[in-house]
Amino acid sequence: MAQSRQDILSKLADRGEDVVGRISDIPAAQRLLDAGVQLKARVDDMQKKMRGLDALERRVVALEKKVDQLARSSGGSARKTTAKRTTAKRSTTAAKKKTA
Questions:
Q1: CA–CA dist 28, 24 (Å, integer)
Q2: Is 23 in contact with 29 (CB distance < 8 Å)?
Q3: pTM
Q4: What Å distances lie between residue 76 and 16, 17, 61, 68, 81, CA to CA?
Q5: Which band of pLDDT confidence, cut at 50, 70 and 90, is reported for residue 9?
Q6: How many CA atoms lie within 13 A of 33 on its CB side?
């Protein structure tokens, strides 16, 4: 019984090796494998960027505290800045008729 069980397992292992060998010959399987490798690389890059966000969030919090402190120390006398608008005068046909 042990001998037949071992034979079945060895046959199964041989079949598995054959299947793996055949899959590598199929172009669609190769594209799928390449897509998996690219996905792994993209996920790794995304993880690196996400780790960098923590540092940026800490900096933003620190800057917000500084801005709050500066706003309090100025006593609320913030200067308003307004942009000066310049518009060109348009000449209309009605204005031309009156002057003529």
A1: 9
A2: yes
A3: 0.40
A4: 76, 77, 22, 11, 15
A5: confident
A6: 9
Answer whether residue 71 shows pLDDT above 90: yes
First-residue to last-residue Cα distance in the chain = 120
Distance CA 10, CA 13 (A): 5
Q: Per-residue pLDDT tens for 39-63?
A: 999 999 999 989 889 889 999 999 9
Residues 12/6, Cβ–Cβ less than 8 Å: no
Q: Judge contact between 49 and 55, C-beta under 8 A.
A: no
CB 24 within 8 A of CB 30: yes
Residue type, 62: A
Q: What share of the chain is helix, strand, coil (3-state, %, to 5)?
A: 75, 0, 25
